[in-house]
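Below is one record:
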Amino acid sequence: MKTIFPPVLLLCALLGFSMWNGAVIARETEACSAAVEQARTAAASGDWSAAENALQQGYDRWRGRQTYLHIVEPHAAVEEAEAMFRRSFAFAAAREDAEFRAETAGLLAQLRVLAEMESLRIGNIL
């Protein structure tokens, strides 16, 4: 019994960390997604200043977790979301409605993918 305790304890610690990590990533991507949704709503009503401000809030939150995301997520996925934020800013500054909507839709999908990659699901385990 004594020899099985350390490996079981290690597995429990790893499971606990994985669950905590998934919750952190889900919370952060949801917060960023909410800001992007707010930006989309403001842009749809023609308030580009509010759209840029909301997008900036989401991006600031994103930048605050950038180091952690680079540690736990694939770099390509994090960099793609970063590029989408930057393109969204460019389209907002140019007041390009169709391109802004398309880019932010892609950004929302990318944020969902980041959260799904860290969620505790059988597909992620196998």
Summary: The mean pLDDT is 90. Helices lie at 5-44, 48-64, 66-72, 75-93, 97-118, 122-125. DSSP finds six helices and no strands in the chain.
